[in-house]
């Protein structure tokens, strides 16, 4: 059964059981409320987006849901390429939030697996595991098995909490939170007959270890609240101490069936890569590489890795992840580079190939996952740019790394010594001649004799070009030394010890990463092929040191970090805040909760409050939060920031008038603040001028997005933004710098919409599918709820299409005319395949344009030109500079009218002396450069006489420096003769003298000094 058929069957089955099909969550782990799960990098399970439903803080439209969830996990990335491990996979799931529970979930699983209408699996080839004390689950499976004549004792097995509890081990170890037993379902895949008759738990465990049983489904029964606390708060690694495990207010079901693995089992295949999930890409890979899939184990594994990593990369990009040097972007970059490396090194791809495979994947899976088809152009461009960048990196880094490896491997006198001294040999494993040699060396702790006897043989081999064959030096040398063939095992022991002794230094590995962007994983793979280990611990230390240096140069204010967590750690159950800010900037409301910020610098003066309703916008979608005032009877609070978590708007405030909780401990401060402010009526007032500036920038961002897509193409998608009261910053996907003409076109299109005073209309509550049908753009990487807000600009008449239509929760102007002025300040690269535009609007644009006008006027004044003639005046000045440079170079070549060059051979150094008159410092330096250019054994000394004084310039070539000549010492010595002094570096130095008449004597002193 193909993955597509299985996906559809699963979803249809549960739809027939009253479930609603819910779309897959993004690989960026947003939950159904739009909140990002900061504890995860990627979405790795079907239940991640439903956490608010499991916790009861949000209400689903249907308590029964089913999904096909995109999942991404990299914990087993080194295993990818075998028969079963993947980074990207699909997880089929069915969920119940306080509706059906254990027995019905098991009934559904049995029916789907065994019913002829659905999968129709042979019940004798199924087995099940349950938690050791879960009698209810055991009895339910037993009931179904007995009904088809199978003894449940031979098919249902009780296992411990590490395999049959969620989270793993949570029954006794925690952590605190929802938990429960699970039941796993397995299918017999071995070619051997299915076990019959007596079949014990030990028999099952043996066959499971032998991979005869393959897990295909897991039902989790979430029914308890694990309670406990850290055994030692100062040492969280010691774990938790359990205090209780009461029932949850309602019970839930969370299940997961791996699509690719189950498709493999149902199709009678031995590898997930043999399923139709991978075959189209693998066929294309065979076609463009010219290599057979089964040509060798190395080629097959490389193709599998490329196919897997391609799926992960394409889905990550489609969901808003772009290559970067940290976080999700780094994982994506590592994935792409690992696949490209396999293609280049194992399959021989010398040109870009990865993006070509993406076309196949988008065609294959874009029907079910529309985001792939919608973002096809962006996926292809991102993969193309990243592969091109990595190939440049790979070339430079590999050259440097292989040079290092060749140096180490081809110097047997250094690494053989290290190897013999550090390797504990078992003499009885070695031939007699080796035993004699090694015994003597161990006794004397000296390997000079061995090295002397081996070196002639190693030097006689030609290993100058082939890095990998040069490893044979060790084998060859030891064989010649002993006069006989060494046992393979003994030879491997010696060679591995030698190579381990010269492992790649961690600092050098980090230098490759820091300088060339060369990933540690790539360094490890190349070194592994050479049999050399990498000092990973040293690499980590070098990276941490670099990070510390970086932090020292740009610390971040963390006062407001985790405000939402602090607030909701209180025992108060806060209701979701009603947001009033779309229609008003002032409101009368009440404070529903308060909590201190326990920071020694602000404790008591700053704290957080929640309001029952608020006009303050909470930071979201790139738009900054509102600021303003909250005023009550006898107190005034300055709002500094607003964040949102689980529907609650958290206002960070500073006390301007009234009482606080300064000097109190946390518990006492919580009580005091709530005594003072809880349920108090207040007037909440947003800073109106600041809000209007923000709305101008936000609406201009929408206009610019549409103008960019018109100008550059529909591959352009927003990849990030910052909208505040001063500036708008817009990141978008595009692989090249914009030309001046393109930027002017974008500005013109935005201005056209501003001058037309287009209405900005919002549709506040639109089903997500209806919004997409309207053509509303879903922004890159954003998570949207089932119902969304659509912002439309223009298109109010039947004959005029809208200029922009986007899903957006931010605040906007009522008409584009309110934006006033708009000006692009800057366009540059933000990341690989991402460009960034910075622009200003309104008064900020007016002030910026005025400052630019002032700069133009100042420049025109200095050039004695009218502003309209400024470009011509600058060009005239540049032409004058070019002519002056030519004259200077000509003068330097001719000695600036000075003496001819005099050359004196002093030992192995050539002293070249020249006198110049009335030349400037640049001319003298240029003359010295020319005297040494192409003559590394030369010392150039130029004397420039002007206004009765003399200056000396000295430059020393590399070979002359090694011979002992130092420019700083030379000029210091000659300047003394002319009544002056100076000095500088060994390769370049200058000095001055007050007596120009002593110039000749000073130059003569240089020759004497070098001869001493």
How would you describe the overall organization of this protein?
The chain has 1012 residues and is an alpha+beta fold. It folds into six domains: 3-272, Bira Bifunctional Protein, Domain 2 (BirA Bifunctional Protein, domain 2); 278-406; 563-686, Beta Barrel (Elongation Factor Tu (Ef-tu), domain 3); 691-850, 2-Layer Sandwich (Threonyl-tRNA Synthetase, Chain A, domain 2), CATH 3.30.980.10; 863-893, no CATH class; 895-1011, Roll (Diaminopimelate Epimerase, Chain A, domain 1). 42% of the residues lie in helices and 22% in strands. The protein contains 33 helices and 31 strands. Strands 1, 2, 3, 4, 5, 6, 7, 8, 9 and 10 form a ten-stranded mixed beta sheet that branches. It has a six-stranded antiparallel β-barrel with strand order 12-13-17-16-15-18. β19 and β20 form a beta hairpin. α12 (354-365) runs antiparallel to α14. The longest helix has 34 residues, at 376-409. It is globular and about 115 Å long.
């Amino acid at each position: 059964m193909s993955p597509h058929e299985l996906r559809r069957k699963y979803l249809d089955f549960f739809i027939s059981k009253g479930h609603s099909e819910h779309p897959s969550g993004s690989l960026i782990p947003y939950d159904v409320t739009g909140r990002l799960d900061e504890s995860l990098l990627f979405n790795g399970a079907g239940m991640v987006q439903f956490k608010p439903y499991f916790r009861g803080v949000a209400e689903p439209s249907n308590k029964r849901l089913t999904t096909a969830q995109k999942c991404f996990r990299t914990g087993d990335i080194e295993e990818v390429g075998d028969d079963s491990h993947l980074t990207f996979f699909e997880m089929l799931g069915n969920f119940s939030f306080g509706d059906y529970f254990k027995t019905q979930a098991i009934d559904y699983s049995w029916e789907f697996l065994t019913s002829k209408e659905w999968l129709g699996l042979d019940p004798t080839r199924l087995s099940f595991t349950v938690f050791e004390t879960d009698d209810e689950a055991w009895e339910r499976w037993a009931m179904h098995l007995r009904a088809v004549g199978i003894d449940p004792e031979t098919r249902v097995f009780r296992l411990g909490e590490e395999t049959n509890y969620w989270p793993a081990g949570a029954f006794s170890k925690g952590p605190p939170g929802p938990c429960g037993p699970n039941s796993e379902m397995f299918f017999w895949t071995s070619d051997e007959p299915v076990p019959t008759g007596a079949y014990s738990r030990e028999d099952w465990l043996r066959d499971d270890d032998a991979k005869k049983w393959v897990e295909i489904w897991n039902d989790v029964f979430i029914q308890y609240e694990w309670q406990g606390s850290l055994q030692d708060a100062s040492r969280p690694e010691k774990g938790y101490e359990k205090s209780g495990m009461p029932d949850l207010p309602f019970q839930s079901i969370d299940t997961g069936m791996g699509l690719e693995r189950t498709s493999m089992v149902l199709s009678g295949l031995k590898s997930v890569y043999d399923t139709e999930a991978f075959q189209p890409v693998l066929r294309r890979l065979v076609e463009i590489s010219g290599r057979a899939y089964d040509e060798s184990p190395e080629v097959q594994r490389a193709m599998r890795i490329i196919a897997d990593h391609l799926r992960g990369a394409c889905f990550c990009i489609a969901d808003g992840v772009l290559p970067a040097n940290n976080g999700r972007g780094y994982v994506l970059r590592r994935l792409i580079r690992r696949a490209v490396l396999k293609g280049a090194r194992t399959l021989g791809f010398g040109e870009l190939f990865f993006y070509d495979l993406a076309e196949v994947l988008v065609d294959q899976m874009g029907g079910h996952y529309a985001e792939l088809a919608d973002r096809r152009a962006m996926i292809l461009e991102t993969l193309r740019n990243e592969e091109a960048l990595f190939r440049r990196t790979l070339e430079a880094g590999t050259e440097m790394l292989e040079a290092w490896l060749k140096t180490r491997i081809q110097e047997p006198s250094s690494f053989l010594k290290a190897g013999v001294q550090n390797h504990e040999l078992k003499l009885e494993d070695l031939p007699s001649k080796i035993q004699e040699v090694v015994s003597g060396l161990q006794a004397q702790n000296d390997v000079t004799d061995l090295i002397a006897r081996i070196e002639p043989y190693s030097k006689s081999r030609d290993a100058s070009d082939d890095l990998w064959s040069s490893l044979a030096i060790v084998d060859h040398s030891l064989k010649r030394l002993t006069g006989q063939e060494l046992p393979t095992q003994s030879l491997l022991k010696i060679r591995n010890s030698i190579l381990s002794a010269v492992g790649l230094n961690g600092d050098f590995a980090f230098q490759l990463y820091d300088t060339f962007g060369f990933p540690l994983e790539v360094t490890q793979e190349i070194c592994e092929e050479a049999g050399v280990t990498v000092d990973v611990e040293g690499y980590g230390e070098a990276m941490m040191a670099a990070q510390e240096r970086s932090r020292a140069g740009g610390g971040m204010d963390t006062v407001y970090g985790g405000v939402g967590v602090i607030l909701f750690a209180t025992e108060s159950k806060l209701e979701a805040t009603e947001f009033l800010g779309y229609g008003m900037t002032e409101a009368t409301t009440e404070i529903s909760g308060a909590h201190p910020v326990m920071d020694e610098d602000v404790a008591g003066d700053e704290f957080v409050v929640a309001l029952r309703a608020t006009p303050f916008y909470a930071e979201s979608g790139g738009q900054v939060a509102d600021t303003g005032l909250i005023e009550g009877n006898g107190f005034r609070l300055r709002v500094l920031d607003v964040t949102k978590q689980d529907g609650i708007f958290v206002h960070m405030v500073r006390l301007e008038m009234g009482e606080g909780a300064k000097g109190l401990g946390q518990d006492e401060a919580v009580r005091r603040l709530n005594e003072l402010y809880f349920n108090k009526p207040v007037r909440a007032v947003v800073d109106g001028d600041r809000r209007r500036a923000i709305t101008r920038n936000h609406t201009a961002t929408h206009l610019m997005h549409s103008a960019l897509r018109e100008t550059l193409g529909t591959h352009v998608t927003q990849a990030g933004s910052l909208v505040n009261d001063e500036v708008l910053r817009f990141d978008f996907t595009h692989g090249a710098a914009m030309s001046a003409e393109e930027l002017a076109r974008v500005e013109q299109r935005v201005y056209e919409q501003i001058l037309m005073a287009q209405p900005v209309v919002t549709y506040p509550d639109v089903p997500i599918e209806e919004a997409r049908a309207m053509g509303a753009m879903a922004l890159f990487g954003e998570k949207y709820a089932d119902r969304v807000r659509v912002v439309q600009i223009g298109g109010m008449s039947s004959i005029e299409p809208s200029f922009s239509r986007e899903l957006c929760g931010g605040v906007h102007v009522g008409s584009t005319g309110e934006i006033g002025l708009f000006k692009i300040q800057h366009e540059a690269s933000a990341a690989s395949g991402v460009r960034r535009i910075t622009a200003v609007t309104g008064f900020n644009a007016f002030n910026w344009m005025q400052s630019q006008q002032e700069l133009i006027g100042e420049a025109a004044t200095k050039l004695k030109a009218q502003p309209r003639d400024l470009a011509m005046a600058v060009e005239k000045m540049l032409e004058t500079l070019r002519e002056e440079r030519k004259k200077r170079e000509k003068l330097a070549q001719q000695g600036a009218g000075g003496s001819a060059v005099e050359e004196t051979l002093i030992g192995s150094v050539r002293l070249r002396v020249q006198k110049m008159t009335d030349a400037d410092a640049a001319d003298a330096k240029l003359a010295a450069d020319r005297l040494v250019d192409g003559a590394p054994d030369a010392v150039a000394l130029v004397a420039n006489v002007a206004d009765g004084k003399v200056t000396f310039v000295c430059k020393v070539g590399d070979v002359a420096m090694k011979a002992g000549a130092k420019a700083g010492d030379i000029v210091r010595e000659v300047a003394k003769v002319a009544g002056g002094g100076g000095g500088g570096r060994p390769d370049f130095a200058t000095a001055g003298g007050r007596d120009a008449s002593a110039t000749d004597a000073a130059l003569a002193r240089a020759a004497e000094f070098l001869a001493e």
